[in-house]
Amino acid sequence: MARGPKKHLKRLNAPKSWMLDKIGGVFAPRPSTGPHKLRESLPLVLILRNRLKYALTNTEVTKIVMQRLIKIDGKVRTDNTFPAGFMDVITIEKTGEFFRILYDVKGRFILHRITAEEAKYKLCRVKRVQVGPKGIPFLVTHDARTIR
């Protein structure tokens, strides 16, 4: 009987939006728990290795990430399986590049290069609005942010 969360993800069960080939091995990197769901996110290792071609292996991605060069939504991320999702801004300090994660018309993730001015804001979908204690309203966005 399984105890705890699942730790593995087979390539064939990975979301089609990741665009992984069938013969690239048995396993795919499983995203960590985070602001986006598994099916609505892309692990950081796939962004750096498969999309941007900054690394050839998972070990190289770990070395890049541990140098604290990669920011997602303005925060340094050192987890190479951190889930980056829709409308997230990825900043690479050393090269001065900014990317926004979007979907193409077929529902696959694409990295859209943006300017430094565009990278300062992020559009969020409001999931729910509630009234908190003392009658103060707050809203929850699609990436689990709470705004009062």
TrEMBL record:
GO terms for biological process: translation. CDD domains: S4. Residues 3-39 form the Small ribosomal subunit protein eS4 N-terminal domain. GO terms for cellular component: cytosolic small ribosomal subunit. Transmembrane segments: none annotated. Residues 44-90 form the RNA-binding S4 domain. The keyword Magnesium does not apply. PROSITE patterns: RIBOSOMAL_S4E, S4. Keywords: Ribonucleoprotein, Ribosomal protein, RNA-binding, rRNA-binding. The keyword rRNA-binding applies. One of its GO terms (molecular function) is rRNA binding. Residues 95-148 form the Small ribosomal subunit protein eS4 central region domain. Belongs to the eukaryotic ribosomal protein eS4 family. This is 40S ribosomal protein S4. It comes from Nephila pilipes. The gene is RpS4.
